Amino acid sequence: QGYQGMVDGGDNIVEVSWESVSSILQVGGTVIGSARCKSFRTREGRLQAAFNLVQRGITNLCVIGGDGSLTGANLFREEWSGLLEELAQKGKIDAEAVKKYAYLNIVGMVGSIDNDFCGTDMTIGTDSALHRIIEVVDAIMTTAQSHQRTFVLEVMGRHCGYLALVSALACGADWVFIPEYQPEEGWEDTMCVKLSE
C-alpha cells in the first residue's frame, strides 16, 4: 500500500518471488496496492518507516508515483541520516545499524496517467489509460448512433489535457475541451454549428 505499508510495517513489507507476480500482466499496475499516506507527511511517520526498513535491512527503494510520491521520496532521502540518528538516540537501533544502513538509494519512476511530469516522454499508466478510453468510446459509439445523440465523455488528467486530446484524435471526436486551452466566448454556438455539420 505504498508509503502506508512502509509506515505500518509488519505483513505490509514482504519479499516477492516469481509466484507473487504470476498472472498479473493483464491487470492494472495498482495491483500492488496504492494509498495516500498522511502519516508519511509527518516526521514521526517517516521515522517509523525508517525503523521498519532498517529492521529488514532495506536501503534501496523503487518509488513509482506522481509528484507527491516522488517529492516524499526525496524528502525521505534527505532526512535519512537524521532519522537513523534519532532512532539511535531513542534506543530503537544501535550505532552499528546507523553505520551499516547509512545510505538510502532511491530510483524514482513516474507513475501517473496524467502524463504531466516534466522530463518524461510518457508516464507509466498513460498508455493503458488511453487504451481504456478508446475501448469505452468503441463500446458506446453504436449506442450514440442508434439514438442519434451526441455523447459527452469526460476523461481524467487533472490539469493536463494530454489524455483528452490524444483520445479525441484516436476516436475521431468532433469536439474536445482541454485545460490548457480555455474555450473562447461564444463557443457553444460554434460547437453546435460544427456538430450539425
Automatic annotation (TrEMBL):
Its cofactor is Mg(2+). InterPro entries: ATP_PFK, Phosphofructokinase_dom, PKF_sf. GO terms for biological process: canonical glycolysis; fructose 1,6-bisphosphate metabolic process; fructose 6-phosphate metabolic process. One of its GO terms (cellular component) is membrane. SUPFAM superfamilies: Phosphofructokinase. Pfam families: PFK. It comes from the Eukaryota. The keyword Transferase applies. Residues 1-184 form the Phosphofructokinase domain. Pathway: Carbohydrate degradation; glycolysis; D-glyceraldehyde 3-phosphate and glycerone phosphate from D-glucose: step 3/4. It catalyses: beta-D-fructose 6-phosphate + ATP = beta-D-fructose 1,6-bisphosphate + ADP + H(+). GO terms for molecular function: 6-phosphofructokinase activity; AMP binding; ATP binding; fructose-6-phosphate binding; identical protein binding; metal ion binding; monosaccharide binding. Keywords: Cytoplasm, Glycolysis, Kinase, Magnesium, Metal-binding, Transferase. The keyword Cytoplasm applies. PANTHER family: ATP-DEPENDENT 6-PHOSPHOFRUCTOKINASE, PLATELET TYPE, PHOSPHOFRUCTOKINASE. This is PFKAP protein. It comes from Oxylabes madagascariensis.
